[in-house]
Design brief:
The protein is mostly helical. It has 4 helices and no strands.
Length: 114
């Protein structure tokens, strides 16, 4: 029986390959990222791009839903979206609060509608 043929060796190989392939980049990011100023232009650009990606994905989910979200009426999706945007601004432009709050409102609307 070979090292990868017994099951455990195969899983160990996959784990080590995945770990080693990503760990180098994590450490490199830590070393380079610690030198970036939070108020600096590169960091602000990365934050703006990340926020734009989240906004685009949320908009796509609201306007062109897939999977189980197709069954949710557009008015409910738009209401949850509006609530998420309101929470985003009320909580000092906190993206996580906006997305999480919108998802919670969507869930609450679905539970009430049953």
């Amino acid at each position: 029986m070979t090292f990868t043929g017994d099951g455990f060796g195969g899983y160990l190989t996959i784990f080590l390959a995945g770990f080693l392939a990503t760990e180098v980049w994590r450490w490199l990011g830590l070393l380079l990222g610690s030198r970036l100023a939070v108020a600096g232009a590169p960091f602000q650009w990365v934050r703006a791009v990340a926020t734009a990606l989240v906004a685009g994905l949320v908009t796509r989910m609201v306007l062109f839903p897939a999977g189980a979200l197709v069954q949710v009426p557009l008015a409910v999706r738009l209401g949850a979206f509006a609530g998420g945007v309101a929470l985003y601004f009320l909580l000092r432009r906190n993206v996580a609060a906006g997305v999480g709050g919108g998802a919670a409102l969507l869930l609450a609307a679905q539970l009430v509608g049953r």
